[in-house]
Inverse folding.
């Protein structure tokens, strides 16, 4: 019995230690409009310290229920989002809106589905197809590796409700209007407007004071999507990463993308190599050089832009 008891104590202590390492502390909630609240996450990549938390989970409190937008990258982050919601309202969560396929934005749906089994989880139809086709498991594995297992235990609750471009979803007296892109940050992007609040959730089509991933994206498509969002002249824009604000929260990244892509077109035609284009662009990057991940991403972005410009020329 002593051996069994010792084993039990060891296992219990190990479980408690793992749980403590995985639990995500409560992050501050900012009310950005009458009905919309945002938890602005860390701006670095997922790691053991931030436990994979890096995006901007948000929630919309309607007359009858709560809509969550992008509940984060793990069940533990989703639980944190729910704790913060419950500090403000006891209304149930009726919907989750997912902005795109990247798992740091949506795998927290696991916690929401556990708490509210009838919740409807919405996403771009291509996001659903990619997640079902293996993308969900790719992101589960990727986040586990980056965080040394801090996201382990998370299960992929793949959305079942496909968005349509221009669709309006009425929830508790509010109208949520959907804007889909064919290929912007990814091929799975949805932006969500809260019409009554003059507010747009940009997803990672728009990031602010932090570099955005372009590995799966297109400069021209991302710029066009931001043009569409900014043309609405809304009062509030919520980026996928970085602080919320007015039009600057979307326009800054648009300026960055356009500057890089225009230079790629111009200098590629002159026969310059990507490293030479990067050198020419650096003096124009003062506004962005202090953004987290600039040093890691800028060279890649120039190369991606050159490749896209060359493909567009044929």
């Amino acid at each position: 019995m002593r051996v069994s008891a010792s084993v039990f104590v060891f296992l219990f202590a190990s479980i408690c230690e793992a749980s403590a390492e995985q639990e995500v502390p409560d992050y501050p909630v900012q009310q950005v409009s009458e009905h919309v609240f945002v938890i602005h996450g860390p701006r670095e990549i997922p790691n053991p310290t931030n436990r994979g938390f890096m995006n901007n989970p948000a929630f919309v409190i309607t007359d009858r229920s709560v809509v969550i937008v992008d509940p984060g990258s793990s069940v533990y982050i989703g639980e944190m989002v729910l704790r913060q919601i419950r500090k403000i309202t006891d209304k149930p969560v009726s919907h989750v809106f997912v902005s795109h396929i990247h798992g740091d934005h949506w795998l927290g749906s696991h916690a929401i589905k556990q708490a509210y089994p009838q919740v409807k989880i919405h996403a771009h139809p291509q996001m659903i197809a990619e997640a079902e086709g293996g993308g969900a498991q790719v992101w589960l594995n990727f986040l586990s590796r980056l965080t040394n297992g801090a996201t382990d235990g998370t299960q992929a609750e793949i959305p079942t409700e496909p968005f349509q471009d221009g669709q309006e979803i009425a929830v508790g007296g509010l109208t949520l209007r959907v804007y889909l892109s064919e290929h912007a940050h990814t091929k799975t992007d949805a932006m969500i407007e809260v019409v009554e609040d003059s507010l747009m959730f940009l997803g990672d089509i728009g990031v602010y004071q932090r570099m955005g991933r372009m590995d799966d994206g297109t400069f021209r498509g991302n710029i066009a999507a931001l043009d569409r969002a900014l043309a609405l002249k809304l009062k509030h824009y919520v980026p996928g990463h970085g602080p919320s604000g007015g039009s600057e929260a979307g326009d800054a990244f648009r300026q960055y993308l356009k500057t890089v892509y225009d230079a790629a077109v111009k200098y590629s035609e002159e026969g310059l190599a990507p490293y030479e284009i990067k050198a020419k662009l650096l003096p124009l990057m003062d506004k962005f050089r202090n953004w987290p991940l600039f040093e890691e991403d800028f060279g890649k972005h120039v190369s991606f832009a050159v490749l896209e410009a060359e493909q567009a020329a044929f």
Observations:
- DSSP finds nine helices and twelve strands in the chain.
- The two ends are 76 Å apart (CA to CA).
